[in-house]
Amino acid sequence: MFFTPAPCMLLTAALALVACGGGGSSAATPPAAVVAPTITTLNSSLSSPWGMAVLPSGELLVTQKSGSLLRLSANGASSTPISGILPVNDSGQGGLLGLALDPDFATAPWVYWAYSEPGSGSEAGLTGTAVARGRLVGNALLDVAVLFRQQPKTTGSGHFGSRLVFARDKTLFITLGERQKFSPAQDLAQTLGKVVRIARDGSIPADNPALGASALPGIWSLGHRNPQGAALHPDTGELWVSEHGPQGGDEINIARAGANYGWPVKSYGCNYGDPVGDACRIGGGVHAPAFVEPLTYWVPTSVAPAGLMFYTGNLIPQWKGNLFSGSLAGQALWRMAIGPNAVLTREALLTDRKERFRDVAQAQDGSILLLTDSGKLLRLAP
Asked: Does 24 fall in a domain?
């Protein structure tokens, strides 16, 4: 279902609730004012940051696309490099990308990261999304091991996907782009254009969907183009993903076991070079009944969603339960009111900043943290 975006909300303006006067001699007690969040720059010296994770101490781990991992203080002012990251190929959209902490980090301090892994030997010159982990001890990652490699490695430098999200059962979801190769998103003998689910040690959970003898191990869902946002719904525990369409057609989906989201057979977007409009929608646009319809989509202009977060804090009560997505081409932070299986409304925030918002996360105090491609860590709070 398509919803027209609401007008941009200016965060510099105060939001106020006006009480209506009633009859009689005593005035009704006005409700408490809603304080509009304002934006603060915590750090402006990062280099193409891509993903972040909030440590139990309140500090942040931040990946930088070129291949470095930083530990930032809780206020973002100071940073320390973390050693132990494996080599990356940072050409194009590749590099050091998504990041997640072990669900039992307090006692098992494993850090998981996604990256574009350069090939060697017979795969020299090729790249593929890979996931590794290491134990964080001080400012070093120890016992580093690769848990997953996208198959096959391929040419090109785009559509790596690379968001990491732990499920409630402590298995790990990995979003994987189709590397701008189109048809592999429908091929179960490849993991391009898929969401994959693995155990924390890299093994394959026994309750993954049964997709046939030709399916590679680990595939959870298919028909994805380039899912660069992923988050677990706080009530249902389901994985929601955002993904890039071609010209228009960016989507929000719930990635369910065995489901097929249609790329490249169906899209509400248009092939590059086609005049944008209803007539050029790939496969006619409508996904059903063969494929899953997106919860919402953006047309005719791509917003390039990046990073995804459900807000569960109390610091900004008017936004509790909302879904937030960064936006690259759209240069906005999108706020969405949702139901258990629906996106109800959309609103573009921070459009006046002219920033490409790469990732979004919730800090321990309930503020909202944002990474921008220009190298900033921003904080939204009343």
From this structure: no
Quick one: tokens of 233?
């719904």
**Contact yes or no for 343/3 (Cβ under 8 A):** yes
Gap between the Cα atoms of 327 and 336, Å rounded: 13
Residue 30 has pLDDT above 70, yes or no: no
- How many independent structural domains does the chain possess? 1
Torsion angles phi and psi, residue 184, rounded to 5: -60, -20
Pairing of strands 250-255, 342-349: unpaired
pLDDT in tens, 183-226: 999 999 999 999 999 999 999 999 999 999 999 999 999 999 99
> Of 159, 224, 244, 287, which is the active-site residue?
159
Percent of the chain exceeding pLDDT 90 equals: 89
User: Residue 6's pLDDT is what?
Assistant: 38
String of DSSP letters for 234-270: TTT-PEEEEE--SBS-EEEEEE-TT-B--TTT--SSB
Q: What is the DSSP string of 38-96?
A: EEEEEE---SSEEEEEE-TTS-EEEEETTTEEEEEPTTS--EEEEB-PPP---STT-SE
Q: Is the pLDDT of residue 13 over 50?
A: no
Distance CA 269, CA 251 (A): 10
Q: What is the dihedral of CA 31, 338, 310, 16, to 10 degrees?
A: -20
Asked whether residue 71 is assigned to any structural domain, the reply reads yes
Q: Which two tokens stand for residue 58?
A: 């309140």
Could you tell me which residues come within 8 angstroms of residue 123 by beta carbon, excluding any fewer than 6 positions away?
A: 153
Q: How far apart are CA 309 and CA 326, in angstroms?
A: 9
Domain CATH number, residue 61: 2.120.10.30
22 in a domain, yes or no? no
DSSP 8-state symbol, 19: P
Residue 1 within a domain: no
C-alpha dist (Å) from residue 103 to 168, 210, 287: 9, 26, 35
57-115 pLDDT tens trace: 999 999 999 999 999 999 999 999 999 999 999 999 999 999 999 999 999 999 999 99
Is 224 a known active-site residue? no
Q: Domain limits at 188?
A: 6-17+30-381
Q: What is the rounded CA–CA span in Å between residue 204 and residue 191?
A: 14
Pairing of β 127-137 and β 140-149? antiparallel
